[in-house]
Amino acid sequence: MISVENLVFTYPGASAPTLSSLTFRVEPGEIYGLLGPSGAGKSTTQRILMGLLKGFSGTAEIFGEPVASLGRHLYERIGVSFELPAVYLRLTALENLKLFAGLYSKATRDPMEVLASVDLADAAHQRVDQFSKGMKMRLNLCRALLHDPDLVFLDEPTTGQDPARSRLTRDLILALKDRGTTIFLTTHNMAEAEEICDRVGFLAGGCIPVTGSPTELMRQFGRSELEVTTAMTAGLEKRSFAMEGIGDNAEFLGLLTAGQVVSMHTQEASLDDIFIRATGVGQ
Amino acid sequence: MMLSILRPRRFLRLLTSDAMNVSRDPMLLFAIVMSIVPAIAFAFAREPMDGAALAAFGLPEISSYVALFVLVLPAILIGWVTGFLLLEDRDDGVLLAVDVTPVGKSGFLLYRVTITALIGAAITAVAIPLVVPSIAFEAKILLVAAVAAESVLAAVILPAVARNKVEGLALTKLTNIAAIIPLIAIIPSPWRFVAGIVPTYWIGELLVGPIPALPVGVIAVTMIVTHVGWAAVLFWLLGQRIG
Question: What are the TM regions of this chain, as residue ranges (chain B) (predicted)?
Fold first, then answer.
């Protein structure tokens, strides 16, 4: 669906390239998360893939074709939800969607159905300047999904949303994936990336030094240990056991049979840990 | 793809949205109303105005000078409304959202320029019989074309020069001066042509220039060169500003 090879891009006047030898692939129907610190080049990568930024070298292909060769027909097949709401504030949610629906040549979805999918049906006739930021972001998402695109670019899709609405948005993204839509996600929310992304790539220094599925990476960067919290007379106590041969570890088995175990956690790294190690931020 | 914006259904959809958008902002709505009202009021007030000016200051036919202002006003106001909408589109990210649709920024800009020129031309076509009914046919055509073009220039100058809405409002005060520039054409000195750098000046030259007036053909050519020159500069600046 997306194929990027040796992509190099330098902004005019900049001394160093923003992207240098960036290489990655996104398969059809996959949710791919591009993660990285601010200024790492996530937006630049997105803008190149959306055909909004020229002057790069290397290969950037979408739907098996170079981005530059797709022309404006590309936008019949991709949807974009920007980090900031990009809608008319004096129009209602429904009026906004009808306006944007009019800009596509192909048949679009029923705006009310799209609004309902993000729990905005009740606010369809409300002016957007009365919306909270979270509501505007959900409307932003509706705008990106109106024409039922094959590939959706989402930039911080749950910004400003309460946990329940964030959950709704994540469920919607997973539902899109189930329907075969490919999702290219950029976010700073590692828990979100861990929950919904099939694969993630950490962008640092203009390339992706670490990539893989969240589960695989968490295991790879973590310790192969089990942390056991037990209730002792002196209070709670934590002990770690190597995963290898744990079934034969007498001390561990003793704790289990004594009924003192309060909780057990495998010691995978979190995506936050991997982010810090991969990007060098905060070290 | 860009020209697809001019398909009637798509064009009307955008026009309807713009109409709703403008009608919900008192300032924009007032500007639209005020681009039409002066011409209607002028038709009724011409004779009393001339009589009062003659009696009070000994000035004959003051209405012919006021007419210039009344005719240029729609270009300034309609252009300002469009320019302000474009500034909002840019500041609120809507232009970016439009840029990732098949229509694109260029197509959307084409719609905005076209509708602005059409409204400017339509208001002028209605205003001419009310304000300057007796001018020659060629002058009427030139006048309609000039106001249409000036509406576009007034629209484009805001997003091309101003970095935000605050700067846009400050710039508006400067561009509003263009509404009185045509009056310079009544000065019987060749120095008046210095004002010809401002496109609206040529409406004054066309309607109230001193006798002997320049031939209409010369005014037409100069008008076209001035307007096209300004358009080239402003669209280039706009391209730099919005990409």
Answer: 27-45, 65-87, 108-135, 141-162, 174-193, 213-238
| Residues A15 and A74 placed together within one structural domain of the fold | yes
**pTM score, two decimals?**
0.84
Of A52, A91, A104, the CB nearest to B101: A104
Structure tokens given for A259: 């009924």
pLDDT tens digits, residue range A207-238? 888 888 988 888 888 788 888 898 887 788 88
Convert the pLDDT of each residue in A12-37 to its tens digit: 988 889 999 899 999 999 999 999 88
Query: Does residue A63 form part of some domain?
Result: yes
CA distance to partner chain B, nearest, from residue A62 (Å)? 15
Q: State whether A28 and A146 are in the same domain.
A: yes
Whether the CB of A104 is below 8 Å from some CB of chain B: the reply is yes
Q: Would residue A102 count as lying in a domain? A: no
Number of domains in chain A: 2
Pairs from B159-167 (Cβ < 8 Å, separation ≥ 24): B159/B83, B159/B86, B159/B87, B159/B90, B159/B238, B159/B241, B159/B242, B160/B234, B160/B235, B160/B237, B160/B238, B160/B241, B161/B237, B161/B241, B162/B87, B163/B241, B164/B87, B164/B91, B165/B84, B165/B87, B165/B88, B165/B91
Task: Answer whether A82 sits within 8 Å of B96, measured CB to CB.
Answer: yes
CB A104 within 8 A of CB B101: yes
Decide: A76 and B102 in contact? Cβ < 8 Å.
yes
- Whether residue A137 sits in one domain with residue A10: yes
Q: Of the candidates A202, A170, A173, A206, which has an alpha carbon nearest to the alpha carbon of residue A188?
A: A202
Which of A165, A44, A149 minimizes the C-alpha distance to A157? Answer: A165
Structural domain boundaries enclosing A230: 223-267
Q: Cα separation of A60 and A65, whole Å?
A: 8
Mean pLDDT score of chain B: 91
Please check whether residue A100 touches B, CB under 8 A. yes
ipTM of the complex: 0.85
Cβ-nearest to B14 among A102, A104, A143: A102
B215-to-B117, B143, B192 alpha-carbon distances in Å: 26, 15, 16
- C-alpha–C-alpha distance, residues B16 and B22, integer Å: 10
Please tell me the distance in Å from A225's CA to the nearest CA on chain B: 48
